[in-house]
Amino acid sequence: MSLAASSTPGAPLLRVDNLRQWFGGGWLQGGGHLIRAVEDVTFEMARGEVLGLVGESGSGKSTLGRAVLRATEPTQGRIIFDGLDITTLNRRRLRPLRARMQMIFQDPFASLNPRMTVGQIIETPLKIQRRGLKCDEVTARVAEALRTVGLDESHADRYPHEFSGGQRQRIGIARAFVMEPTFLVADEPVSALDVSIQAQVVNLLMEIKRKLDLTILFISHDLALVGHICDRVAVMYLGRIVEIADTRTLFCNPRHPYTEALFSAVPLVDPKRRRERIVLKGDLPSPLTPPSGCAFRTRCRYALSACAEAVPPLTRVGAKHMKACIRDDITLEPAV
Questions:
Q1: In this predicted model, what pLDDT tens digit does every residue of 74-90 receive, in sequence order?
Q2: Between the N and C ends of the chain, which has fewer C-beta atoms within 10 Å?
Q3: Residue 120: burial class (beta carbons within 10 Å; 0-12, 13-18, 19+)
Q4: Which domain does 310 fall in, by range?
């Protein structure tokens, strides 16, 4: 099977079908219990699209992002990238695709090797993927990447501990973009930064996105930010996508109670407006022992006894709007 793109015009760049990512089964989990971090996730991403992935900590967002890139081995399901099923490709056959699929990590401190200079960190992907490049060509590419993210090329000789958090995240972005990828997973790329720096990093991401026509899976807790930069939004709860729609539709007409609860925490721009703050009961259930039926039912104020009977599938409620909830008789509070 050839690794060349086999997609047809207009086909999605990425398609994920019934993806599962389970962990455990060892002695730490009692010998047989499984952590169902990602459970039957299905979605598509068009070329050039920015898809926001939101949900509480522990909902499986980062795990899903890593599984899509094959940074971890999915337990079940299929990942189709540019028309090619990459789910079971071995390391040798997957390697040429790594240049097109990159990731920006959440922690700009832990994601950079403190023993390497900035130049060595950025040039490593080039040395692995572009072995035919000469030393001066690699140096030029590193310098260009640093300039693109707003750093000086002289910074290539310095070490990560010599930079601020915002500068370190820029270095991580430079490392991802030096390969000129087509798909990017941005895992909470600004959550560890000061508010004053977040806007700069987001604007930088969007500028490079337009330059490279990138497709981005943008993982974030910041719903206001997601609403500003994303074309569509997927809401994740305990390993499952419970609602997905284009951004405007989701913010104006949420159809899942969990989405409504998330929106209730977003501050309103108009100080004269008031909105009920929905406080969810209890903690996020454990993926070791998820509730029967709808996983959100134990914290949902609209739950019925029928919610415990079966896991609700994602069903279409609009042209580009899907939800996993049996309640069609409720009107939920929008974000705007």
A1: 999 999 999 999 999 99
A2: N
A3: middle
A4: 14-100+181-323
